[in-house]
């Protein structure tokens, strides 16, 4: 696990009705590696934040998880090839550019780049 910083988000947990399908998506789209903890939980580790998926049904909420990419267009292609749905095409904002997608469970995430 990453270094813990006081009062900073360090773990994100998603719900998924199909852990094998969601693991396959994130492995193909971003190369994430997973560790299974029984049939109802799988975890991933990142350089800045860790997280996991627990068995359950996702509902769309107000939190937006944002992933960084050095090559935005290449990442968008990988997301689409892995089965993600682009819900906001690449657009510019004051800090760079980004796009939004939904994963196979309907969770909306964004990917951004500073260029």
The residue-averaged pLDDT reads: 91
Assigned CATH superfamily: 2,3-Dihydroxybiphenyl 1,2-Dioxygenase, domain 1
Query: Separation of termini?
Result: 30 Å
Cα shape: globular
Oligomeric state as shown:
single chain
As for the CATH topology, it is: 2,3-Dihydroxybiphenyl 1,2-Dioxygenase, domain 1
User: What summary fits the major beta sheet?
Assistant: 4 strands, mixed
Which spans have pLDDT < 50 for at least 5 consecutive residues? Answer: none
Percentage beta strand: 35-45%
Q: Say how many strands there are.
A: 8
- What is the highest CATH level, the class? Alpha Beta
Number of helices: 2
H/E element order: EHEEEEHEEE
CA gyration radius, whole angstroms = 14 Å
General description of the model:
- This protein has about 120 residues and is α/β, with parallel strands linked by helices.
- The chain has a single domain (about 10-115), classed as 2,3-Dihydroxybiphenyl 1,2-Dioxygenase, domain 1 (Roll), CATH 3.10.180.10.
- It has helices at about 20-30, 70-80, and strands at about 10-15, 35, 40-45, 50-55, 65-70, 85-95, 95-100, 110-115.
- The chain has a 4-stranded mixed β-sheet, covered by helices on one side. A 4-stranded mixed β-sheet has the order 5-8-7-6, covered by helices on one side.
- The radius of gyration is 14 Å and the shape is globular.
